[in-house]
TrEMBL record:
<comment type="similarity">
    <text>Belongs to the eIF-5A family.</text>
</comment>
<dbReference type="GO" id="GO:0003746">
    <property type="term" value="F:translation elongation factor activity"/>
</dbReference>
<dbReference type="InterPro" id="IPR014722">
    <property type="entry name" value="Rib_uL2_dom2"/>
</dbReference>
<protein>
    <recommendedName>
        <fullName>Eukaryotic translation initiation factor 5A</fullName>
    </recommendedName>
</protein>
<dbReference type="GO" id="GO:0045905">
    <property type="term" value="P:positive regulation of translational termination"/>
</dbReference>
<comment type="function">
    <text>Translation factor that promotes translation elongation and termination, particularly upon ribosome stalling at specific amino acid sequence contexts. Binds between the exit (E) and peptidyl (P) site of the ribosome and promotes rescue of stalled ribosome: specifically required for efficient translation of polyproline-containing peptides as well as other motifs that stall the ribosome. Acts as ribosome quality control (RQC) cofactor by joining the RQC complex to facilitate peptidyl transfer during CAT tailing step.</text>
</comment>
<dbReference type="GO" id="GO:0043022">
    <property type="term" value="F:ribosome binding"/>
</dbReference>
<feature type="domain" description="Translation initiation factor 5A C-terminal">
    <location>
        <begin position="86"/>
        <end position="155"/>
    </location>
</feature>
<feature type="region of interest" description="Disordered">
    <location>
        <begin position="1"/>
        <end position="22"/>
    </location>
</feature>
<dbReference type="InterPro" id="IPR012340">
    <property type="entry name" value="NA-bd_OB-fold"/>
</dbReference>
<keyword id="KW-0396">Initiation factor</keyword>
<feature type="compositionally biased region" description="Basic and acidic residues">
    <location>
        <begin position="1"/>
        <end position="13"/>
    </location>
</feature>
<dbReference type="InterPro" id="IPR048670">
    <property type="entry name" value="IF5A-like_N"/>
</dbReference>
<dbReference type="GO" id="GO:0045901">
    <property type="term" value="P:positive regulation of translational elongation"/>
</dbReference>
<dbReference type="InterPro" id="IPR019769">
    <property type="entry name" value="Trans_elong_IF5A_hypusine_site"/>
</dbReference>
<keyword id="KW-0648">Protein biosynthesis</keyword>
<keyword id="KW-0385">Hypusine</keyword>
Length: 161
């Protein structure tokens, strides 16, 4: 049992380490990205306090988790480094929506990607399902960061008859 626990720990550490890069806290701005409590967040508010009698200026970050929408906060000395997630957006064409809530997507290389669930956002989920049922050609934007992926937007391909 202890072997599997050690293996699990190592894979977790490895995955998180390569998915971020360090950036000085004082240079991170609003609408940028930051890791707060091991979650990739979009910065919605930054305030900097003045240096105290014995210390550093501190940056107060308020971020929204890019995958679950939760609000997170962190206070970091402005001269220290913070982890910043590598956030990528990729567009895929929708091929299929399965009964169990997974989507089948076409990659640029012509392969299929079948490991993504429909988004938890009800409006976005309805837009994808309805568009698919009506036979529309849909392009889904997938945001990925720190080993997680989620569908974040949908658009229809116009002009095909």
């Amino acid at each position: 049992m202890s072997d599997s626990e050690e293996h699990h720990f190592e894979s977790k550490a490895d995955a998180g380490a390569s998915k971020t890069y360090p950036q000085q806290a004082g240079t991170i701005r609003k609408n940028g990205y930051i890791v707060i409590k091991n979650r990739p967040c979009k910065v919605v508010e930054v305030s900097t306090s003045k240096t105290g009698k014995h210390g550093h200026a501190k940056c107060h970050f308020v971020g929204i988790d890019i995958f679950n929408g939760k609000k997170l906060e962190d206070i970091v000395p402005s001269s220290h480094n913070c982890d910043v997630p590598h956030v990528e957006r990729t567009e895929y064409q929708l091929i299929d929506v399965s009964e169990d809530g997974f989507v089948s997507l076409l990659t640029e290389s012509g392969n299929t990607k079948d490991d993504l669930r429909l988004p938890t956002d009800d409006a976005l989920q309805a837009q994808i399902k309805n568009g698919y049922e009506e036979g529309k050609d849909l392009i889904l934007s997938v945001m990925s960061a720190m080993g997680e992926e989620q569908i974040c937007a949908v658009k229809e391909i116009m002009g095909k008859n």
